[in-house]
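Table S2 (text version). Query chain:
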Amino acid sequence: MQLTDSITTIKGIGPKTAEKFRSLGVENVGSLLSFYPRDYIRYNKVEPIVDAQEGYFLSVMGSLKSKISVRRFKGRSISTAVVRDESGEISCIWFNMPYLKSTILPGRTYVFRGRVKRKGKTFELVQPEVYQPEKYEILRQDLQPVYRLKDGLKNTGIQKAVRTLIEDEGLDITPFENYIPGKIKDRYHLEDRKEAIINIHFPKGEKELEQARERLVFEEFFNFFYSIRSEKAGKNRPVNHLSFKNREKFNFYLSTLPFSLTEGQKSALGEILNDLTGPFAMNRLIQGDVGSGKTVIAVATMILAAENGYQSAMMAPTEVLAKQHYESIFAEFTKLGLEFKPVLLNGSMTAAQKREAKALISSGEADIVIGTHALIQESVEFRNLALVITDEQHRFGVNQRAKLQLKGLNPHVLVMSATPIPRTLALIMYKDLDISLMKGLPLERLPIKNCAVDTSYRNTAYRFILNEIREGHQAYIVCPLIEESENLDGEDVISYAERLRGIFPKDINIGIIHGEMSQEEKDHTMEQFKKNCIHILVSTTVIEVGINVPNATVMMIENAERFGLSTLHQLRGRVGRGKAQSYCIFVSGSKNENTRKRLKVLCDSNDGFKIAEEDLKLRGPGELFGTRQSGILSFSIGDIYTDAEILKKASEAADYAIENGILFNNKYKGSDLLTNEGTLPII
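Corresponding structure-token output:
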């Protein structure tokens, strides 16, 4: 079997199942092996019942207080029992498992493992697994992979398919050795890739998992750096052949702003103007905090280009954000009487709408083009593209940015990021870019008030949110999961929203949004939220990028311990965008001391740059999962905070390889990984 073979060659995968795998970006044998687990089931140590925490898995060793009771309700059986140990008692509930009554007997000791939920003033274990103590100790030695799921695929099905491949003696693994040059592998004492692939899917223990991750993370970072730096090394800096002498409309736009530019905005704009009139084409990153006003700078620069007869293209990572930019710019130009024509192009437009937009772009009638990945399609042709802007640049691969640049003749390039990262890491990640740090917030915005609380505060938080809604405002509630999972801890959007509908008054409208909804559904939900038809929006982190609803004043984040500090800061930035006082509530059921310290950093500061530096100090290589920075460079397995030391080594290795002429068949481009979904390329 070859890595390029279709996954239908794997036993048990037919055309229908293959289609489900394709929705995850998995089409062949190689991409399945590179579809890494998102987490692992760890059979945690047995704990006393008194340590139960809502929302978390708990393993307790105890015995039944009395026989299991079975009753029927709405066509299904419900089995209940009370388990006790020396520290206390906890209720257990099982659905459609009446046979347990005859298999789990009072007087015998078992290990009960299940998710803890609150029931009134007490806790209960929901659908707990039951093990003999000896069997449970054996399981504690194993780590079981948990994969990202979609379209009805089950975790066990993916596990089975991967295990079938790994155990296939006929699998040709020769291409595995092309992922890193042999000299680099030896120089940095890296594990063989085949061994790493086996251990990332089915690690025998934590040590094996750590070694496998180190190899694969190094590979991913190395390929990323090798791609962008070898490309840069082979090129001279392009000469600036464009003129930006006319500035009347540019100055007019800035003079009409209802606020004064911050010092950070003035500094960034000055550096951009110097680039546009300098000897070489601009290649600049604006790294600004959430809400620092980067979009104003981008719009002003696009107006300057249009005023001088050039086209601009602004690429956003999501259709929601692209549409938001387009509508905002269109309304602004209409209000100010600016006759430049903005055009929107995204994937969900009808064929007729796309044809019309492309015609306007190719003729040059469209001065400013806003869109998503649709902008880099071969069928999109510009007449005189002089300025390329990438919004939330960490969501795009280097190759995607390059494709848009090729639509013009050495255009000026401006990339923007609202995710501050420590300067030490920024200098590594963005070595090919000039960097503008844009600090400070508009003067009219009040600092967000923050608090970190445990789950017992929820009802108080709900009352606070209701008061804000009665005052005419709105709220976000963020959950880490889309739907309830048997394997992963955390609140999920779907059941959480349903629960809220039973808590809040009937006139409070509650909506949901998450990444697996269609674009049409997401657009409709955001439109309803912007119009205040939805009062509470329950969401995953899909709303962390650029969403602007000034009327929203409360951000409540469940299972805050599962996110990195920079991601939490990004989410917090969805509020505080209007003139009203805004609030952020970080909810965590964890009693971990490091979690408490991390959340305190957020409560003590609204400065993203300071938070990023503290995050780097607090994060450690032992935190492989749970606090991944979803807002920073969507690598498939690496994380620039957790893996900061590997990042530095990979950067050094890429420079060493290029300087010493170490070439290899770089089929697997790290830059190709950096897509909005973080999906893998097809090998």
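Notes on Table S2: The radius of gyration is 27 Å. The chain has 22 helices and 21 strands.
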